[in-house]
Amino acid sequence: MTGSTSLARVPCTIVTGFLGAGKTTLIRHVLENAKGKRLAVIVNEFGDVGIDGDILKGCGIETCPEENVVELANGCICCTVADDFVPALDAILSRVPKVDHILIETSGLALPKPLVQAFHWPAIKSRVTVDGVVAVVDGEALASGRVAHDHDALAEQRAADASLDHDDPIEEVFDDQIACADLVVLTKADLIDADGAVRARAALDAELPKGVRVVNVTGGRLDPAVLLGLGVGTEDDIENRRTHHDNEAEHDHDDFDSFVVEVPEIADPAEFAVRVAKAAEEAEVLRVKGFLAVAGKPMRLLVQAVGPRVDHHYDRPWGAGERRGRLVAIGLKGLDRSKVEAILAGEPVAA
């Protein structure tokens, strides 16, 4: 055998998908079941608090220590490749012992193609390769005819505004993610009946490149062997994957707003979950994620919501100086911050 494994390019898996589809849950499961493989993660946040990074750092996995989880919070990764992504790769590739595989979790609005194209850059092309692009899709939403759980509010807003393009930007982002995928993970399979599964698969097949596999997943539980080691080398084929944005020099995300809500210690997680659902229904919040402090509990409460569907559980003890409730709220441009904060505080809101 010739050559040296030390010179081999490190495989990278790009995990893309819309807000709330289940990317972080999937990656955490991979980290917890890596069977000795040394992993690193680059997390591209949408918002001002590193919630997804904290969720992954809280795994306590020896083969993926906290310093191997790098957060990029300066904007969408496909728009800030040179400023953020390359330095993050440099940091990870300098780790000792050397990492075996890098997982890249994009924001829900990221386009995979510009990121994959960056793997041709001289600074990194000899050191890393794209093992595969994995598109995580909300199966429950897709079965209902939407690409995201709370897509109706966006569709209604666009239909009412004649000055906007007829094309739906979220639909375009979804199409572009599927067009670049080497594997599609259809999440929330337990929430879809047989007819819904047929509808979801039909919607995927309409956009799915030939030969791309679709796997159904519940709770992010997917054997890492299915996700890692695809060996595609996607950067070598990326120009053949046609997307809506191929002829655009750049894109922006002005359709969305996000902000951080400071939350005092709460008494009842179930009661607070009702408030989060109310914020989705009455203030059109698309996504909420963060950590809360619960009175009398040493564990931090992880809260994740997509529209009115709210999940919460205790994930780990608070660290020294950490005990502080903070949530990121994400919605369409013009999201009413004061209304969201009032609802989460349990205050009456004017009609």
Summarize the structure.
The chain is an alpha/beta fold and 351 residues long. It is 28% helix and 24% strand.
Describe this protein with a few key phrases.
11 helices; disordered N terminus; 24% strand; alpha/beta; seven-stranded parallel sheet; 351 residues; five-stranded antiparallel sheet; 28% helix
Low-confidence stretches are: 1-6, 47-51, 153-168, 249-253
Radius of gyration equals: 20 Å
Order of strands in the sheet with most strands: 3-2-4-1-5-6-7
Question: What is the helix fraction of residues, given as a range?
Answer: 25-40%
Number of strands: 12
SS-derived structural category: alpha/beta
Q: What is the average of the pLDDT values? A: 78
Number of helices: 11
Tell me the distance between the termini.
Answer: 73 Å
Overall, the morphology is globular
Please trace the helix and strand order, writing H or E for each element: EHEHEHEHEHHHEHEHEHEEEEH
β content, as a range? Answer: 15-25%
Question: Strand count, sense and closure of the main sheet?
Answer: 7 strands, parallel
Write the layout of secondary structure elements.
Layout: E1 10-17, H1 23-32, E2 39-44, H2 51-57, E3 69-72, H3 81-93, E4 101-105, H4 112-117, E5 128-138, H5 139-143, H6 152-160, H7 169-179, E6 183-187, H8 194-205, E7 213-216, H9 224-227, E8 256-263, H10 269-283, E9 285-293, E10 299-306, E11 309-317, E12 325-332, H11 337-344
Parallel strand pairs: 1-4, 1-5, 2-3, 2-4, 5-6, 6-7
Antiparallel strand pairs: 8-12, 9-10, 9-12, 10-11
Helix pairs in contact: 10-11
